[in-house]
Known about the structure:
The complex is a heterodimer of chains A (114) and B (112).
Chain A: E1 4-7, E2 10-13, E3 19-25, E4 31-38, E5 42-51, E6 54-57, E7 64-66, E8 76-78, E9 87-94, E10 104-105, E11 109-113
Parallel strand pairs in A: 2-11
Antiparallel strand pairs in A: 1-3, 3-8, 4-5, 4-9, 5-6, 7-8, 9-10, 9-11
Chain B: E1 5-7, E2 10-14, E3 19-24, E4 29-37, E5 43-50, E6 55-58, E7 61-66, E8 71-76, E9 85-93, E10 100-102, E11 106-111
Parallel strand pairs in B: 2-11
Antiparallel strand pairs in B: 1-3, 3-8, 4-5, 4-9, 6-7, 7-8, 9-10, 9-11
Amino acid sequence: xxxxxxxxxxxxxxxxxxxxxxxxxxxxxxxxxxxxxxxxxxxxxxxxxxxxxxxxxxxxxxxxxxxxxxxxxxxxxxxxxxxxxxxxxxxxxxxxxxxxxxxxxxxxxxxxxx
Amino acid sequence: xxxxxxxxxxxxxxxxxxxxxxxxxxxxxxxxxxxxxxxxxxxxxxxxxxxxxxxxxxxxxxxxxxxxxxxxxxxxxxxxxxxxxxxxxxxxxxxxxxxxxxxxxxxxxxxx
Lengths: 114, 112
């Protein structure tokens, strides 16, 4: 299994541009999520999905859109990039159960907005 | 605001010593997890403790959970240089949907 894959690894955008960060998992996990990591802030939840066709907002959803048309893919769209969105973005997936969920993380996308 | 807060923010110890990191959280939880992140990489799951458990072990890791104080601790015994990383606690709230919220992390540096 490839696990959780993310593309691209690095991206530089100009203010106002839009782009989509790709995330895919091959573990048939129901739950997928996007986090951003800024220095000293830990990970903050942007959006998450509990299954195909179902998404919900996390802690910092503004400026981002998501959709989940398949179990495998969970793309994150930046609508109009701003310098405040410069960050490292991580996608994660898990098989949720009542006992808890171990999340598997992708390698991250380092985004710079100038 | 973030659910989990780790303490200390940074910790520097000698190889062979024990490292203890603490996590406090704000709301009732179903479970609490600890993750490790090596510099520039994704997070790796270490251990999960459920809300009805008080202590759990995995190799050199020992996790405790005190739900009355809303706190957890991660102990790494006989630390090695390879343990140098950032460590994060993450909580699944018992209400409010399927959100896993991370703390700001503790940066551990183990000197050889």
